[in-house]
Amino acid sequence: MKNLLIATILTFCGAVLPGAIAVVPVDAMAAAQRDPPTDKDFPASGEGLRIPSGGQQMNAMVYVPSGKGPHPVVVLFHGFPGNEQNLDLAQALRRAGWAVVTFHYRGSWGSEGTFTFDDAIEDGAAAIAWVRNPKTAAHSRFDSNRIVVIGHSMGGFVAAERCAADAKLLGCVLLAPWDLSFDTRLYANATEADRDRIVNEDYADVDGRVAGMNARQVFDVLKTQGSKWQLAKFAPMIAKRPALLVVATRDTDDDKALDLRAALNAEHPKALHVETIDADHSFSDRRIALQDVVLKWLAALGRQ
Q: In this structure, are residues 179 and 79 in contact, taking their beta carbons and an 8 Å threshold?
């Protein structure tokens, strides 16, 4: 939704997971750029499905890699409203042997219901529960004991919440995560003119993409309620498992990840590595670089 340049922060927080192999050898660049061999008995596949959440159905897409499996799973959360869905990253992950589940939150992009930020958090939990359902896992050749969450922008907030709340996840990747509470602080003294400018500049892409919330309502909700969606409060629990944090250095949103970065540093001050990549919030001209860093992190994560 907004332009930025990227600093890539690789955060290996916490001990190696019980039963995990130290390193899984994966040629990250090969997965980003070349197709794998075809398994004639179990070829790669994709399927449009629906995931239940709150009594309604969310539109979803499942990418299954070749091979009998079961395959480790990435649940991929897009941002708000979700113009950039990182589907090229999903394809690269599949080429590297990961099944990928991506979906649209309730009230967004044709999914049933109306959108709220609280519901989006619930939707993240519902998607993971759906992956763990034995019938789902058998159908899509999932290894439901090996799940990583990856989220971009607002999806990064959802992924952080899940990573903090769900001890069974192997880890999380936060791509330019959005600290919604930052906007509450930013908008506290906003004038009517400020509000109109922010609505027109920052949230112009909301209308028509989500149901039940327009650009003006987004501003009002963040101004009055955003303090409850604080990214940094998840740091103590996130720090107990492997995490990859990708933030932007030259973007108006960069400050929105500073609290989380400081909190993670407080938990594990020696665990933070910073790497800068020249791109915007959507990694527009560094898509292969983004895939490379995520794939290498997953390879180092190991598998149970």
A: no
Going by C-alpha positions, the residue among 79, 74, 51 that lies closest to residue 64 is 74
Q: How many domains does the chain have?
A: 1
For the chain, give percent helix, strand, coil, nearest 5. 40, 20, 40
Residue 214 located in a structural domain: no
For 198, residues 6+ apart whose C-beta sits below 8 A from its C-beta are: 187, 190, 219
Q: DSSP letters along 109-136, please?
A: TT-SS---HHHHHHHHHHHHHHHHSHHH
Residue 1: pLDDT above 80?
A: no
Contacts of 103 (CB under 8 A, 6+ apart): 51, 58, 59, 60, 61, 111, 123, 127
Q: pLDDT of 145-185, one tens digit each?
A: 999 999 999 999 999 999 999 999 999 999 988 999 988 88
pLDDT band for 30, please (50, 70, 90 cuts). Answer: confident
- Asked whether residue 218 is domain-assigned, the answer is no
Domain extent at residue 242: 6-183+230-301
Residue type, 131: V
Q: Quick one: how far is CA 259 from the chain centroid?
A: 18
Cis previous bond, 43, omega within 30: no
Query: pTM to 2 decimals?
Result: 0.88
Q: In CATH, what number is assigned to the domain containing residue 171?
A: 3.40.50.1820
Q: Which residue's structure tokens are 């740091």?
A: 235
Q: What whole-number distance in Å separates Cα of residue 300 and Cα of residue 295?
A: 9
Residue 241 forms part of a structural domain: yes
Q: Does 204 map to a domain?
A: no
